[in-house]
Amino acid sequence: MAAGVSWRDLYELRDSGAVVELSRGVYQLGDVAGATSIDFVAVCVRAPRGMICLNSALAHWDLSDEISSEVHLAVPQDSHRPAIDFPPTRVHVFRSTTFDLGRLEVTLEDGSRFSITDRERSVVDAFRLRHLVGQDVAYEALRRYLSDRPRRARIVELARSFRVSAPMTDAIRLLKP
Q1: Given strand 113-117, what is the order of strands in its sheet?
Q2: Under 8 Å between Cβ of 122 and 45
Q3: How far apart are CA 97 and CA 164, in angstroms?
Q4: Phi-psi region of 146 (alpha: psi -120 to 50; beta: other; left: phi over 0)
């Protein structure tokens, strides 16, 4: 609408396949459709202050084999909780004071962008919210992280910020290669 396209023209373009509807009000040109992580882009367009987190972030960073049936999105506690039906989205509310720790913006080849927790924050979040993601998923994510370019000082620092340093340190000792 901001580009001057009427709803009638937009629906005509959608019906002809020239554009693809990714989510309510979010469209993409048909010739670039099918890009990787497009669900992340669609969700982040609908929730600009949000970021991809937990199971979705773990899968993105190849820290988990689990393929979630929904996109996990974090929003800061002082912002609007979006209701996103498609792609299926589960919204988590994170504290505003630590929300931006480990937040990373990813730009895809086509120029579209989304925000996601970085590798270290993804592992720490899995540990601190292991009652949601599953203890096995949290330990597997940490094991994979430690086996591939670990930044131990960074992950321990983040664990301290989120008050999970004791269980993380114990797990790191246990899983140390």
Answers
A1: 89-94, 71-76, 51-52, 113-117, 103-107
A2: no
A3: 16
A4: alpha
